[in-house]
Design a protein that fits this description.
This protein is mostly helical. Helices cover about 75% and strands about 0% of the residues. The relative contact order is 0.04.
Length: about 100
């Protein structure tokens, strides 16, 4: 009878050890996933903050109206426009 009880105790101990190992692995995996999600969340929050700043600037430009100087600077710098009688010189010397 003692021999049977001893085998039963060993089986229970082994079962508990396996269960504990599985739960430990599960907890570690979830912690790793949680840390990754926190990093992603932080990155997304920074991206959202940057987009909100750009949005505020655009709304300010809309609210202020587009003044002639702003339109002219955009046309010259970004679009390469010039007045019809204007001559543009480009320095190609590389200095």
């Amino acid at each position: 009878m003692k021999h049977k009880k001893k085998k039963s105790n060993i089986f229970i101990v082994l079962t508990l050890v396996c269960l504990l190992a599985y739960l430990s692995f599960f907890i570690v995996q979830n912690q790793i996933k949680l840390n990754e999600l926190k990093k992603d969340s932080e990155i997304k929050r920074h991206q959202l903050d940057a987009l909100k700043r750009v949005n505020r600037e655009m709304e300010k430009n809309i609210d202020d109206g587009l003044d002639d100087e702003y339109v002219e600077s955009i046309a010259r710098e970004r679009l390469g426009f010039a007045y019809a009688d204007e001559k543009i010189f480009i320095d190609t010397s590389g200095n």
